[in-house]
Amino acid sequence: MWQYLTDSYNWSGNEGIWARILEHLWYTFAALGLSVVIGLPIGLRIGHTRRGAFLAINLGNAARALPSLGLLMLAVLLTNQIGFLPVLIALVALGIPPILASTYAGISGVDPATIDAARGMGMTGREILTKVEIPIAMPLIISGVRSATLQIVSTATIAALVSLGGLGRYVIDGLKLRDFPQMFSGALLVALMALLLDAMFALIGRITVSPGLKLG
Amino acid sequence: MTWIGNNLGLIWEQLREHIYLAIIPVILGLIISVPLGYVATRYSWLANPLVAFGGLLYSLPSIALFIVLPAILGTKVLSSINIVVALTIYTVSLLIRNVIDGLRSVPPDVRQSAIAVGYGSLHRLVAVDLPIAIPVIFTGLRVVTVANISMVSVGAVIGIGGLGELFTLGFQKAFLTPVVVGVVLSLALALLADFVLVTLQRVLTPWARVAAPVAEVA
């Protein structure tokens, strides 16, 4: 495996490791971005108005049970194409629930007395959401995005099954060719990427959380 | 529909493999996490590193773990032991936190009463601490069981994946039915397993009159 990873030939070019890393990151962030764009506003709305909580909680639980591989195959067969679209659909379906559920949990968990106080100071509903609820819910929102990221990074590996690139390429090709060093290298790189992204979100969490919450 | 009728044997076989691959790791994981969690509550400096290490392990992608394990264990790549070991690792890494939190949730006066009545440490663990920790442990157990059931399918990429093999089969033949059957059965299995755990928890904690706690967010 070290031989494979330390051979500079394997790192360069269109099918080199760097190119695969970039592809993998692209799938991950495209899916993550879309999940946030869909999941966050719905979570904020349900948390703020407290309507549809049933949906948020049950969706969060049901999503854990979704088999990602089945989802991908389903998306391929239903969209009738092989490529980026079905991968994106499968990854976004995995990404939305944790984001939605933890955003909802964070917002609806804000102490009602705090909201009353904000209202008493004359804040409008929108101000309460952006200046009170979101900052207080931030740690939970970030942790939702974090678990979505982990799921998406590791699942993006199966993009290679539908002839896309990414680090899964090494895993799938290595498996087919019985080239185990290549396979292990791919698996190791995915694991490293997951750990690095997780550390990045831990850092973002530390930076974005209001200092007032850390006094606790 | 005729495909389902003609392949009931195959579907049943994969379902059985799926149950076996998902449930054995949960049982093994529980057997490992309880003593580990107990040790971590006795020597409390161990708790934080253990939980952090668990979080680290849990962030490893399942497909990576399925593939790297044979190199470490010396098993064959196409061996179901890899799946069982990988999912056991996930189970322990998630459950350890719940076991520690659960054992810590035992009120000090309850513990003191047990000691006063003459319970030794092992007897107290089994008869007092663990029963009180059940709700917290079961929250983790439910998460891990459902997650395992969904993760087993990924094993199909390397050739052993229970219902996941219906996904690869349907994909190769560009045929929707097996994929839908696999997804539906996998979801149904997860729901059923969750229901069994909730019921088991009710039976094990007859003193808990209050309804089950609201589902925890990931």
Describe the structure.
Chain A: It is found in: Cell membrane; Membrane. Chain A: Residues 21-201 form the ABC transmembrane type-1 domain. Chain A: It holds the Pfam family BPD_transp_1. Chain A: It comes from Kribbella aluminosa. Chain A: The chain crosses the membrane at residues 25-44, 56-78, 84-107, 152-172, 184-207. The complex is a heterodimer of chains A (216) and B (218). Chain A has 216 residues and is mostly helical. Chain A is built from ten helices and no strands. In chain A, α2 (17-49) runs antiparallel to α7 (125-155) and α5 (84-108) crosses α7. The termini of chain A are far apart. Chain B is mainly α and 218 residues long. Chain B is 78% helix and 0% strand. Chain B has helices spanning 2-6, 8-42, 47-58, 62-73, 80-104, 108-117, 121-152, 164-172, 176-204. In chain B, α7 runs antiparallel to α9 (176-204). The longest helix of chain B is centred in the first third of the chain and has 35 residues, at 8-42. The radius of gyration of chain B is 20 Å and the shape is elongated. The two termini of chain B are 36 Å apart. The interface between A and B is large, with 49 and 47 residues.
Radius of gyration of chain A: 20 Å
Number of H/I helices of chain A: 10
SS elements, strand count of chain A: 0
Distance between the termini of chain B: 36 Å
Helix proportion of chain B: over 70%
How many distinct helices of chain B?
Answer: 9
Q: Write down the overall geometry of chain B.
A: elongated
Give a short account of the largest sheet of chain A.
none
Please write the string of helix (H) and strand (E) elements of chain B: HHHHHHHHH
- The assigned structural class of chain A equals mainly alpha
Membrane topology (chain A): Multi-pass membrane protein
Pfam families (chain A): BPD_transp_1
Domain ABC transmembrane type-1 (chain A): 21-201
Transmembrane segments (chain A): 25-44, 56-78, 84-107, 152-172, 184-207
